[in-house]
From TrEMBL:
InterPro entries: F-box-like_dom_sf, F-box_dom
Domain of life from the UniProt record: Eukaryota
SUPFAM superfamilies assigned: F-box domain (SSF81383)
Residue ranges of every copy of the F-box domain listed in the record: 18-66
Protein name: F-box domain-containing protein
Length: 237
């Protein structure tokens, strides 16, 4: 079931139907959520705290049971481009964050020099989904993130923020973390080592569920319809 189908169901439903939906046990709601697409799950997660909890679990299960993952796109001065695929690892209930790890070991070569700008994380995309079908899935980050490559032989973390619409805010802040190791020692497969070379190994990517909220106000449509039906029912009484 996609967003348009679910939207039409809500439009054709009455207030009693919506109220009864909230009385369903969590197990039944979880089955319902798992039949929806990602956009609709995120929209429903914005309705109330109970739907948020169920939405997090169902979204984690959808990541785990399907080919959905993330593609991180790096470059340095719009050159030396490298794409790294990440697979869903787990949902940390304590922190409420999704954890993604690289599908395979990747070592990325960049240059540390005063004459060259630092490398950047340019894009975070879905894999296993048609990114062209929905503009919300083209790039989840709104500006590129600079990666520090000054320190040698260390574990570093880049923390940045995106803004979404949801949870009663038109400027919802969502933080994400990218962790990587940095070394000036080339991998064994490299024959030559040039001055200033740095080798980045991606380790993990962390984000909250609202990181995947659509950029536009799709999530508000369901809430607006529920409020509309409740008001109309109160007027009839």
């Amino acid at each position: 079931m996609n967003f348009n189908q679910f939207h039409s169901i809500i439009n054709s439903a009455n207030n009693e139907y919506i109220s009864s939906l909230l009385t369903f046990p969590d197990e039944l709601l979880l089955l319902l959520f798992e039949s929806l697409d990602i956009s609709t799950i995120l929209s429903l997660s914005d309705v109330c705290n109970r739907f948020l909890s169920i939405g997090q679990v169902s979204l984690a299960k959808k990541f785990k049971d399907s080919n959905l993952g993330l593609l991180l796109v790096f470059d340095q001065e719009h050159r030396r481009r490298c794409n790294v695929e990440f697979a869903f690892e787990q949902f940390e209930l304590e922190t409420g964050r999704f954890i993604f790890i690289p599908k395979k070991s990747n070592v990325i070569r960049f240059i540390h020099s005063r004459m060259i700008l630092s490398p950047k994380l340019r894009k975070v995309l879905f894999t296993g989904i048609d990114n062209g079908a929905n503009s919300d899935y083209k790039n989840f980050i709104q500006k590129s993130c600079t990666l520090s490559i000054e320190s040698n032989n260390s574990i570093l973390q880049t923390i940045s923020t995106v803004y979404r619409i949801g949870r009663g805010s038109t400027h919802l802040k969502s933080q994400f973390n990218f962790t990587y190791s940095l070394s000036d020692i080339p991998p064994l497969s490299t024959d030559k080592n040039r001055c200033g070379e740095r080798w980045i190994t991606p380790v993990r990517f962390e984000c909250s569920p609202c990181f995947f909220y659509p950029h536009e106000s799709i999530a508000r449509k369901i809430i607006t319809n529920i409020i509309h039906f409740k008001r109309r029912n109160n007027q009839r009484k």
